[in-house]
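G., the chain you wanted modeled:
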Amino acid sequence: MVNYVVETRGLTKVYSNGVEALKGVNIRIRVGEIHTLLGRNGAGKTTFIRIIATQLIPTSGEAYVYGYDVVKDADRIRSKVAVVPQEGKTYNFTTPWHEVYLAARIWGYGRVEARKKVEEVLKRLELWEHRNKLCIQLSGGLRQRTLLARALVTDAELLILDEPTIGVDPLGRRRIWDFIREIRDLGKTIILTTHYMDEAEEISDRVTIIDSGRIVAEGTIEELLSIVRNGIKIHVYGDDVGERLGNWSPRNVDGRWIINVSNEEELIDAVRDALRYGYRVTIKPPDLEDVFISLVGEMYEE
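Predicted structure as tokens:
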């Protein structure tokens, strides 16, 4: 019996230009879980999943999928894995029906069985009413769901989703999260990569934080939150917060200022200072973003 869907030991990848994308990665991914790889752009997430999907050969180390070696047993692995690549694209002048039907036929289903599975998948992903529209006419969220349908129709045991909600509006993101949970509930194992903290916290059974090619933390959301359990986060809204409350080292994140304090006394003092300037203040418990920042520092775009 295979204990882990994916297991790597000392996995390393160095590209021809000298960039070391993975540095001795050890990871185990269990059957039937949503396992998220969380990291900023360029952290090594996509390199990792390309190796797992047998699209890239590692420089050194070992990687196994369902007990098969990704180098020696690539053909056996490919029959068990379906991938939705980062910023994958549909064909503009085909329809969701034809996209998914073609995937089913390529996977080996006969015409009758393929039609049956396509209808089932399109209905599950709420694409049935859009099945005959050209993909170029669909919204970003519907195109992304079409890509998910292409992967799901294969009935693969392992689904690899690389940044599946990139470019999708907030409502569309939440629908895709629901679909991913449904896929997990069908008994599939899902590896998902993202740099969205809320996404990782919302849908993951386990999270691996990766930075500069190294694993810096791994566990359930609760286990990761315990890293900053004693911290308190204050959100401050207003102008000139950075100058007026500079002694609290506020961080500007998406238009709001965040102050981290470690105890009740600091909380009271910081809130009092903020209210003195008439700022609106909210107090929130630690979240995955706090864990990430405490481990790898401020996020930035590479």
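The longest strand covers residues 4-14.

Shout if anything looks off.
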